[in-house]
Specification:
Elements lengths: L1 H14 L1 H22 L19 H4 L3 E3 L5 E3 L13 H17 L4 H20 L1 H29 L2
Antiparallel strand pairs: 1-2
Helix pairs in contact: 1-4, 1-6, 2-6, 4-5, 4-6, 5-6
């Protein structure tokens, strides 16, 4: 019976954490949007907006010539979507929550430090370059860690004795 509860806790921590994280991102964006609306003097630039879901290349959005992989210049296509920041974050988040849940359930909380360190090192270059990515990284990581640790602690206390 314990195996069933552990499996349920892992599934809840790993996969139900995504909607929770998305909700926190939406809340953060709403708060930022309200702050931007209150501060009419500064125009929101998607490239520097910490609540934005995408980064925008100013050369592409201005319609200037863009060098293609073949080395030729062509006009920017407005229908091409901007690259998302922190790509792969949903999959990394699921793995992170699973690892944190396993760490708490097995009584090895120091493993959480390894998860955060590996994640931070893997994203270091992107976080250093882009403040938008750094803010999303912090919000997503803290939300994921809190959700997974909470689910695991609840399962350990209430269900596993």
């Amino acid at each position: 019976m314990n195996a069933l509860w552990i499996t349920l806790a892992l599934l809840t921590a790993g996969f139900a954490g995504w909607p929770v994280t998305a909700l926190v991102f939406r809340l953060a964006r709403t708060i930022d949007d309200r702050a931007d609306a209150a501060d009419a003097a500064s125009a929101a630039d998607p490239a520097t907006d910490p609540a934005a879901d995408v980064t925008v290349d100013p050369a592409v959005t201005s319609g200037s010539a863009v060098t293609t992989t073949a080395g030729t210049a062509g006009a920017a296509d407005a229908s091409v979507s901007s690259p998302r920041i922190l790509r792969g974050g949903a999959i990394i988040g699921v793995l992170e929550r699973l690892a944190v849940c396993v760490a708490v359930l097995t009584g090895q909380p120091v493993a959480i430090a390894y998860v955060v360190a590996i994640k931070g090192l893997g994203r270091f270059a992107e976080l250093k370059e882009t403040p938008v990515a750094a803010e999303r990284f912090i919000i997503g990581t803290l939300t994921s860690l809190l959700w997974a640790a909470g689910v695991a602690a609840l399962a350990k206390v209430l269900l596993l004795g």
